[in-house]
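Submission sheet (multi-component)
Chains listed below:
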Amino acid sequence: MTLDFSRQLHYFWALLPEIVLCSWAMVVLVAGVSGSHAPGRVPDDNGDPTFDGGASLGWLSLAGVLLVALFNGWLYSVHEVDQTGMIAVDGFRLFANWIFLGAAALTILISFSYVRRQRLQAGEFYALILLATSGMMFMAAARDLMVIFLGLEVMSIAVYALTGFNRRDRKSAEAGLKYFLLGAFSTGFFLYGIALTYGATGSTNIALIGAAVAGGGASDGLLTVGVALLLIGFAFKVSAVPFHMWTPDVYEGAPGPVTAFMSAAVKAAAFVAFMRVFLVGFDGVYEAWYPVMWWLAAITMVAANLIALVQSNVKRMLAYSSIAHAGYLLVALTAANQTAAAGLLFYLLVYTVMNMGAFAVVLSVSHQSEERLQIEDYAGFGWAQPLLGVFLTVFLLSLAGFPGTGGFMGKIFLLQGAADSQLWALSIILVLTTVASYWYYLRVAWFMWMKDAGTPGHHDQVEAPFALRVALFASVAIILYLGVFPSGVLSFAQASVAGLGSVGGSLLGVGP
Amino acid sequence: MNNFTNPGAAMSGAYLPLLLLFTVSVLNAVGMMVASHILSPRRPTAQKEMPYESGMIPLGDTRARFSVKFYMVAISFIVFDLETIFLIPWAVQMRELGWSAFLAMTMFVVVLAVGLLYEWKKGGLEWD
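Outcome: structure written.
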C-alpha cells in the first residue's frame, strides 16, 4: 500500500497504531469504572472473592499493546509517496515503536501486584500508561514540530498524572507537582523554540526546515535562538545535566512501575524526537550546535556518574544512572552519523529492557510499595532469593556495561559511532565514566552476595508474582541474547535509520 | 519572493498593520487611564470608598471556603465550552470541508462522549 498525503484519509492509515492504542485506552478507562470495577464496589483484598486488584484490566491493556504491535508490523508494508508528509512512515519510527510497546508491555506486567497492594485505581492507571505510550508513538511518527509538540504533551500530561498517582503517599504527590511545574516550564521553552524556528525557516515541517537550513534560506539570529531553545526543551525531557534537577526527586517519589516506565520509555521517546529534529532538521547548522551537544554529553556523563557514587537509596541511584545513560546517548547525537544513529536505537532498546528489569526486582524487594529502598536492605538478598538475585545481578552488570550483556554491545556501538566522527575525547570520557559507574552498580551486587542479612528471614516476604516473573525472564533473555548475538538486531537498526535523512541533505553518513 | 521564503520581508510588511493596531490599542487604553487620573475631581467619602458603591454592604471575607463540587461543575463546563468553540467554526464551513472534517469532528465528539461517560460512571455528575 502506498500513502499519498494529499488525500487526507491516508493519514488515518498512517496513524492506525496510534488510533487503535488511543481507542483501547478509552475502552480500558471505561471498563475500569463499570461492572465489577465500578467505584461503588470498594476493592477489598480480604472479603470479596471477585476482587482481582485490577488484574483483568491489566491483561486487557496488555492485549491492546499486542494488538497495536500487530498494526505496527503491518505498517512495514506501507510506503509513503514522498518524505515530506506531516507523519513519517519509515523504519526509524517503527523501530522506536517497538521500544515503546515493549516498555509499555513490561510496565504493565510489573504493575500488577503494585496496583493491587497500593490499591491504585487500575482502570485509570493502565489507561494512562497506554495514553502516554500513544503520545510517544506520535513523537516518533512526527515529521512536523507541531506533531512532536502534541505527542510530547499527550505523553507528558499522562506521565505527570502517573507520577502523582499514589495520592495517599506524600512523596508521590510532591513528585507529581514538581514534575508538572518544571515540565510545563520546559514545554514553554520548547514551544518558543518551535515558534522562532518557524520564523526563521518558514515551516514547521522537519524535512522542509532541513532543506531551508541547508540551502541557507534561514535567517541566522532567529534560527540560532530557536535551535538553542529546542535544545533546552529536549535536554529537559531526556534529563541531561544541567537540566536534570527534577529527575532524582521525581524518580524517587513516583510509584515504582511508573519510575521504570519514565526512566526508559519517556527518555527513549524524547531521544527519538531529538534525533529526528536535530539530525534531519538542523543538520545544516551542525557546526553551531555541535559544541553545545558535546559539552552537554560530557557534563552529563561526568556529573551524573559522580553523584550516583554517593547515593544510598536504590531508586535514587537508578535515577542518576538514568541521567548517566542519557549522557552516553547524547554522545551518539553529537556524533550525528549513520553508525551512531543505529547505535542510539540499539542502545535505547537495550537500556529500556535492562532498566525495566532492574526496577522489577527493586519492586519485589520493596514489597511492592515504597519501603526497603536503602542499599542496606539488599544485604543477603542474593542467597535468600537466588533467582531474583541472579537476575538483578545480570541487569546491574548490563547497566554497567559488562561484556556478554546487551549493555556492553550497546556501548560498543555508541563508541563506534563516536569514532566515525573522530570524537576521541568524548569516547575517552564515556569509557572512564563507565568504569566509575561499576562502583555503584556492583556495590548493590556486593551487598546482595557478600553481606549477611541483619535479621534471619529478612527476605522471605519478597513478592514476585507470575506476571512480574514473565517480565523478568523476558528481560534477561533479551539482554543476554543481545549481548551474545547483537548483529541481527543491529543490522535491523541500521536498516531502520537508512532513509532517515534523505531529504534535506543530512549529515548521516557524512561526519564533521 | 513571497513571505515564506523571505521571513525578513514578512516581518516588516505583512505584520505591520498588526503592530500598528497593537500600538494604537495600548496607547488608547493607557491614555484614557492617565487622562481620567489627571482630569477627574476626587472628593472621597466613606460611602464612596466601599467596594460596591450604593450596593450591598459586603459581609465577611471574600476568601471563604466552598465545596470542591463546584470545581467539578466548572471543569465539566470548560470541556463542553471548548467543544462548542470547536464545533461552531466547523459547522459554519461544514459543506466546504467535506467528509474528512466530518470524520475528524466525529472522533472529537466521541472522545468527549467517552470522557462524559467516565465522569458519569465515576459519580462526577452527582451532587451528593
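Remark: The longest strand of chain A covers residues 2-3.
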